[in-house]
Amino acid sequence: VPVTKDIYGPTLELGRRKENIQIVNNCHDHRSALEKAERELAFEAETFCTVSLERLREILESGARKIINIGRFSPEKGHRLLLEAFERYHKKNPDSYLIIIGGYGALFKQTLAQAEALSCSDHVVIIRSVANPMPILKRCDLLVLSSLYEGLGLVILEADTIGIPVISTDIPGPRCFMERYGGFMVPPDVKGIYNGLKAFDKGEVGVMAVDYEKYNRDSVQQFEELFAGAGE
Fold it and tell me: Which of 45, 104, 151, 152 has its Cβ near the most Cβ atoms within 10 Å?
């Protein structure tokens, strides 16, 4: 059961039987995302952040451009590309910040070291292990999904739910969703992400504003058709 038609082909290669494959899109708990976004910004005891909670609040409440990425610290998330692209962007847009939030992941120390080596390191915030990133996401201007591969990337749906524009790399997984709802995609490389940031500044990247009530009804119907077919 692939969660998007983007991964139907690889699934067929594994299973070899079309009749055994049925696409069922992920449901999205949009109401929970909206509720969590309204909670107070808070760190937990295990949270690591390169700035204090007070300083983070100052950044989020400022008029600076705030770009965010949420995803574990692992190779497929493309943080290296995003950091390089942001360094280029920051040279022409000094009043801007990049915030990367992750949980677990083998590349945390590498990501932290790369961020600290940038010429704009004081405008990059790295956060690890924050239970509710939605209040941070809500106060940012743009979400960038810089992944090299994904199943879908539910953070895209969360950002869109709370009214944050999204740029995604043009890869299987998010591609189907972004194409369906008019999302903005870029090649999965430094130049592509950098050009996406410039496009956002030009007003070319908007909120998709998906109707998630309908989206979820359609997903539930897919589930019901899946089980109805199994019963036959």
Answer: 152
